[in-house]
Amino acid sequence: MNSETALWCVGGALVVAIAFAVYKARSAGRLRARIARLEEACAARDAAVAQLAAIGLPTAADLADGARPARSTPALAPILAGTPFADSAAVLAQRYTVGLGELQVAVAESVRHKAQDEARQTTESSVRSFAETVVSLGANLSKVVAQAMREHRGQETFETLTLIDHTVQQMIRQAQSYVVVCGGLPGRRWPSQAMTDVVRGAMGRIQDYQRIRPRELERQVIGQAVEPAVHAIATLLDNAARYSPPGSFVDVTFQEGHHGVTIIVDDAGVGMNSEQLDAARRVLSGQEPVDLHRFGPHPKVGFPTVAALSKRYGFQASVDGSSSPFGGTRAALFIPEALLAADVVEAAPGAAPEPEPPEPSGAAEVTGAGLPRRRRHIATADTQPLPPILSTSAPRPSVAAAWQSGVHSADEAAAPSDPAEGTR
Amino acid sequence: MTRPRRDPDLVRAYVVTGGVLRPSRDVGLVTLLVAQDVPAQGLAPEQRRVLGVCSRHGALSIAEIAAHLDLPPSVVTILAAGLMDSGHLAVPTPVADVPDIDVLKEVLRGLRQLV
């Protein structure tokens, strides 16, 4: 009985052992298969990362050629399909290609801007340097002409000098516009001047100055603002005269305000349509940056010049298509109080009678012939009247006439000396 | 009293004469001019200066006016010719206004007393 029992036990244990062995063998097979799958997936991931690196690097190197980066997602082995890895890889590839594309565009843009800036700077500095030379030579020439007008007295000489002078002044204005547009400063310096003379100085620089009818205003513009103001007003006057009929007048008036003085230029031209007005306002207000490269073959430097001067000195320029009393265009230039000198102190009433205008100072400076000595610049007026040549009282026509007839008879006596020296 | 400095180069000569290049009449540098009592309205600044200096100094020649006002003589000639046209300036004529012989005698006597 005991041996039978033992046999059963051994048999049972054997069965259990065999079953266990079979189970283990199956389990090991499953594990091996799983390991193989995992190894395969791991290799697929390595391949995918290698591929990402491979498509990424050459594209970055291609940037310089301007080629667009290839916009691809890495090809994944089927085993990775649907895994989080596949999703992440796709996102990564996408981000990379998009970022690369943006970078490429940005780099191209910045290179282009840099090249343009350099080209603009080169153009500007050469145009400016050329224009400054013209202005400086022209200013010298106009000094020579002014001096010649004082020294040579024939009327023919005066006519010729005047024609030369008028041309030179216009040349200076044109050149100076380019100086200002290219970021330079108006180079000429003046002492402070009455508004009247600022406007008349501007008139001298345009072709049709005879059609300008200026009012007068004694307010003084400070020295450093005179040349920019003259130049800006000359530009507005030139515009007004150029775009109005040859027979019409251009009126210049002044509006004295609390914050400054406005110079108003009214013409009787055809006026501007609303688009032209808008364009002019954009330029004048400085919203449209001045760019030499965009001027084209027929550059209009007028309004850009006024805008540049306004920005630098604090003027305000404007145009209006409806408020000119002549149906044309009204242009206005506001000069702020800061650029105006304090009012001229007037003499107390009853003091030395000083009728109109300033006069060369210098009772003390008298030539041997009893005439006041000429001076280049007039600094102050004479508070002390010149020694009277004939009489201190009212004109004495009789005495003058006696002197006159004496002079004439002397002239006649010396008549055949030089007929070419006549006044005509 | 301060007066502004006037830069003679800022306002060009042709603007001062209003574009007139030749005098409208024959005026010599020594022609004497006397201001007339005519309102100076509507005149340009330099024309008023010429009138002002003439009325202050009695009679002045073109050359003297030019020196006083620091203007080129040609410019003053043109301005003065214009002012003569408009009646603001006149060349004094001796015809009817010769001093009386008695006055001259008085002057002579006075002068002798001075010597």
From TrEMBL, chain A:
GO molecular-function terms, A-Z: kinase activity
Keywords, ordered alphabetically: Kinase, Phosphoprotein, Transferase
Any single Pfam family the record assigns to this protein: HATPase_c
Transmembrane annotation, as ranges: none
Biased composition (Low complexity): 412-424
Catalytic activity as recorded in UniProt: ATP + protein L-histidine = ADP + protein N-phospho-L-histidine
KW Membrane (keyword) present: no
Cross-referenced InterPro entries: HATPase_C_sf (IPR036890), HATPase_dom (IPR003594), TCS_sensor_his_kinase (IPR050428)
Enzyme Commission identifier(s): 2.7.13.3
Region Disordered, residue ranges: 349-424
Domain Histidine kinase/HSP90-like ATPase: 229-337
Tree of life domain: Bacteria
Protein name, UniProt field: histidine kinase
Automatic annotation (TrEMBL), chain B:
Domain of life: Bacteria
Spans traversing the lipid bilayer: none
Any Pfam family matching the protein: DUF742
Protein name per UniProt: DUF742 domain-containing protein
Source organism of the structure: Catenulispora pinistramenti
